[in-house]
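> call design_seq(struct)
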């Protein structure tokens, strides 16, 4: 019999999001990303989806009581140092997460305002957008909308980098500390340019554009990588660039799965 005292401690990061049966996005992408970054991932399932690389075929929201019980079970035992949110499909779920943020005083909250899947399925009720603006974004450390999500939150059209900057300013005015507008929907001179706004100045992170259908779960993966890096002690600018590079490599090293928008290779750092 071997007795071993467990002395290794790693940060715990909790995701509150939807489950993706195809394993490319949502909770599944979050947990793979956490593991790749060396943090312990805990999960709260807020919705169950039936999906694959071709599309989303069914969505079932989880009862508020079960979401509450999952959050309480994780927080009261594991004390996550960072929380990341993904698919919160209804106003009630958004409000619940906002209330839990206040109850537990989470210091690092990464809000990825998931609205539409890579295949085009709507994952957020329209009436929940205002709930995000009013209740959750003012509590967030950082929000990570893509361009369509930033356009909806800000209420403006985005077709240029200047538009992205204006949207970031509007979203920042809701009370969120940092805003990252992901630029994957707006190719700029062969570059994919993400934009970080801290309320005063902008920081850009640009990498070569990858023309690939292996893009399912890029937003979830970015937000989870960002949360993991913040949990590990990175400052926001360092976490921002690290998360961008991680997603780029995960896309560049993707493997073929399915007939549609395939997943990333979250474990690209760990080859066979």
């Amino acid at each position: 019999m071997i007795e071993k005292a467990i002395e290794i401690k790693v940060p715990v990061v909790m995701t509150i999001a939807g489950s993706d049966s195809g394993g490319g996005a949502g909770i599944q992408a979050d947990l793979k990303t956490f593991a790749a970054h060396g943090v312990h991932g805990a999960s709260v399932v807020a919705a169950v989806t039936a999906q694959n690389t071709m599309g989303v075929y069914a969505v079932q929201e989880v009862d508020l009581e079960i979401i509450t019980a999952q959050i309480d079970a994780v927080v009261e035992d594991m004390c996550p140092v960072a929380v990341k949110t993904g698919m919160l499909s209804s106003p009630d779920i958004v409000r619940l997460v906002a209330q839990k943020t206040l109850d537990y005083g989470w210091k690092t909250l990464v809000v990825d305002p998931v609205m539409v899947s890579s295949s085009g399925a709507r994952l957020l009720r329209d009436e929940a957008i205002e709930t995000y603006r009013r209740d959750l974004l003012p509590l967030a450390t950082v929000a990570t909308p893509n361009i369509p999500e930033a356009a909806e939150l800000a209420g403006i059209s985005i077709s240029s980098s200047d538009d992205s900057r204006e949207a970031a300013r509007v979203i920042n005015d809701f009370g969120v500390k940092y805003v990252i507008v992901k630029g994957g929907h707006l190719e700029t001179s062969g570059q994919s340019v993400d934009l970080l706004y801290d309320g005063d100045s902008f920081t850009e992170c640009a990498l070569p554009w990858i023309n690939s259908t292996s893009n399912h779960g890029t937003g979830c993966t970015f937000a989870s990588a960002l949360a993991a890096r913040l949990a590990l002690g990175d400052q926001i600018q360092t976490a921002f660039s690290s998360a961008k590079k991680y997603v780029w490599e995960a896309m560049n090293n993707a493997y073929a799965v399915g007939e549609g928008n395939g997943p990333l290779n979250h474990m690209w750092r760990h080859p066979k």
